[in-house]
Amino acid sequence: MRLSPDQMIFWQHGFIKLNGTIVFTWGLMVVLAVGSKLITRKLSTELKRSRWQNLLEIVVTAIEKQIEDVGLHHPEKYIGFLGTLFLFVALAALCTIIPGYEPPTASLSTTAALALCVFVAVPLFGIGEQGLVGYLKSYTKPTVIMLPFNIISELSRTLALAVRLFGNMMSGAMIIGILLTITPFIFPIVMTALGLLTGMVQAYIFSILAAVYIAAATRTRKPKPEPAPNT
Amino acid sequence: MDNMTLIAVTSIVTAGLTTSLGCMMPALGEGRSVATALTSLAQQPDASATITRTLFVGLAMIESTAIYCFVVSMILIFANPFWNHVIAEATKATGK
Predict the structure, then answer these.
(1) Which residues of chain B are within 8 Å of residue A208 when distances are taken between CB atoms?
(2) FRET label pair with B26: which of A30, A85, A230, B90, CA 20 to 30 Å apart?
């Protein structure tokens, strides 16, 4: 019973192993990077544009609108990071259609790496918006007693991001594997479709949660207005 | 009961219990949250984008507790360190 693509070894030399997670991650990176480069080679602003450019424009404007809705007011600063998160996780889930492919996000290493990226990005964006002192002071809001709880919540929601994505992806792959051994072929097909749906939802959730954490870190709090003196 | 049997029985029973609780409780929570979301959608249909998005984020947070329970059950059944330990001991004992 294979629990993760970590156990599919393609090539081994000493202790350097090329396992399924690494190979499929590279494949996704190549598809995303080379595909975008090819599509954006000849961008046109006329009415007549290629359908691939249209597709990319739909994707980018939809992500920008979502980021804006969450409360980040200059989405162009954050869309590089958040858009890449969403596209990587979504493409990793979408490619399960291809036979022989295991999503690299079904391995805890990949999801932990993505969660660590979010963990590092939130203070970076927060310090960029509010300055170092302002960002550190936000840990003591609403009172100084909350400081350890704020720190613990930072760590635990990073862990939750990693385990949520890992659990969803791994359970999809595992259910299909178990069903293949005991039921007629129609049920694994249905479960693959369900796995596609949950994969896309989890990609959306991952990037929206990252956006919400960044919004919470970059939100400048308005100073409380002084009570008006009564005359 | 010797060690092996005890570990096996405990792992199986705990895995079943974890999965059952992990499926029932989040389902109740998610049902209540969807019901409240539907009520507020009926009251304010023009806020439907915000309500739907908040609903999905809330559902994902509730779902993640179910996923934690699932992961623990899977570890107990398929990657159980205690079971691997006693199996290694037993193999060493019979191999000697």
Answers:
(1) 53, 56-57
(2) A85
